[in-house]
Specification:
The chain has 2 domains: 1-76, no CATH class; 100-160, Arc Repressor Mutant, subunit A (Orthogonal Bundle). By secondary structure, the chain is mainly alpha-helical. The chain has helices at residues 7-26, 29-45, 47-52, 56-74, 92-99, 101-108, 112-123, 128-135, 139-158, 176-181.
């Protein structure tokens, strides 16, 4: 069966970037490859409609984000491990991301919806309105999920009493009474 016009070229040009995006969403190369493959299968079926709108990559990325959330809901009772039992093809973009293991480990501790919002906002550089549209949530939800996700990241990276944690005793404020006796 012949491929739709321009589909093969799109896949060959953008598959590496889409795999890196999938890795950031899923946290491992195997799930990233599955996300890309499933999203590209869905893109092929809608290629004529999507190509006319001149933004097939946005379609694929949105599909990948939604698939990731859907898969997470189905597997929510499984526990993912940090080590992969076997090696896979090494992508330089993924290798670069793995070098900063602390941030990526911390990102793995963030719930999937919050992780998707953080990835789209800070890794992809998208605005709240675009994220809301892609994930089919409100802009207020995007902001609240980003806030909660950043809080979880901060706690994971710095611990409960890290430098950014508030002082439980409160700030040391000098009052006029204390100044008089100081």
């Amino acid at each position: 069966m012949p491929e739709p016009d321009g589909f093969e070229q799109f896949v060959s040009e953008r598959s590496a970037a889409l795999t890196r995006y999938g890795y950031v969403l899923a946290g491992n190369p195997h799930d990233a490859a599955d996300l890309v493959q499933e999203a590209l299968i869905r893109l092929r079926g809608a290629w004529g409609r999507v190509r006319r709108r001149d933004d097939p990559e946005a379609y694929v990325r949105t599909t990948m984000a939604r698939l990731h959330i859907s898969w997470w809901r189905k597997r929510r009772r499984e526990r993912l491990v940090d080590t992969v039992p076997e090696l896979w093809a090494i992508d330089p973009g993924i290798t670069r991301a793995e070098e900063d293991i602390g941030v990526w480990d911390a990102l793995g501790s963030v719930p999937p919806r919050q992780r998707a919002v953080l990835v789209l906002r800070y890794y992809e550089g998208l605005g709240d309105n675009v994220i809301a549209e892609r994930l089919r949530i409100s802009e207020g939800t995007v902001r609240s999920q980003a806030l909660r996700g950043l809080r979880t990241l901060r706690e994971h990276l710095e611990g409960p009493r890290g430098p950014l944690a508030p002082d439980p005793a409160g700030p040391d404020i000098l009052t006029t009474e204390r100044r008089r006796h100081a």
